[in-house]
Amino acid sequence: xxxxxxxxxxxxxxxxxxxxxxxxxxxxxxxxxxxxxxxxxxxxxxxxxxxxxxxxxxxxxxxxxxxxxxxxxxxxxxxxxxxxxxxxxxxxxxxxxxxxxxxxxxxxxxxxxxxxxxxxxxxxxxxxxxxxxxxxxxxxxxxxxxxxxxxxxxxxxxxxxxxxxxxxxxxxxxxxxxxxxxxxxxxxxxxxxxxxxxxxxxxxxxxxxxxxxxxxxxxxxxxxxxxxxxxxxxxxxxxxxxxxxxxxxxxxxxxxxxxxxxxxxxxxxxxxxxxxxxxxxxxxxxxxxxxxxxxxxxxxxxxxxxxxxxxxxxxxxxxxxxxxxxxxxxxxxxxxxxxxxxxxxxxxxxxxxxxxxxxxxxxxxxxxxxxxxxxxx
Length: 377
What we know:
Rossmann fold; about 45% helix
């Protein structure tokens, strides 16, 4: 089957998602994309730009069976601009995130455009896939409140129709993270060396780096012997806390910045004792899953998609991987991990095995079947 994949923001997790699925899929993919820059402009112009690209391919004789696109595309606009034969194909809209619940530092009325683009795209899609139930629930709940802000002609009757064509399709992660030898993990756990703590996320305010560095400060004051790795992509307007922390924790930092390659990132994850997230905006948590597959002990705020992705409700014993979301509770959790490592008992149990379901060899066949079913309706 031939899949036309459209990605206006071909970078980061969006790029990894499509490359991972294509690599492990039985279907043939044609990917039409744009570089991952200036996301707001991408959401505004990508329907026009990518319709032009697809129309050129169609004019050359390219044909497809189904359309797959991300939430960064205004699907309704794109559908109206593309060749009618292409526009008539069944379409899947994938929500990596949604623009209704992003914790903007400076909310402005014109930002409503992005939320409404998500809404019209969902209406135009034949199926809507979310990366987590949390994402779906948050989007539909906030969508109802958002539409009721309209002065009149509130189209809230579409919400039940969106629910009817929605499903959950978690993303896959590279199985290379799980290739760490168990004897290597044992050596790290019992060496008596400092606790290796890794924080890996975009260097932006929605990942709450302030709470992380405050927790590190408290943990050090409490006597925790640790080494720091602060990883992730930085941008021109990164939060100032990173520059301040680089100076304050200079004697504790082993890595600070973006990993030069995937192999380096994998190696850093596989040699991590504790992976920490402080996110206040997260619809799945790929880095947390990658770290846990690599053998790291995850410390996650008990909010967002994390309890769902790590099956906390079905496995109450995994409460040990969660903290209360504050710097104080994280510092205490780091202290507990420090004591466990000194005792040689810092272990994630069967978590690594159970998270194998998120690796691409397990996820791709499920997604292949789902998109083929839609194409043959």
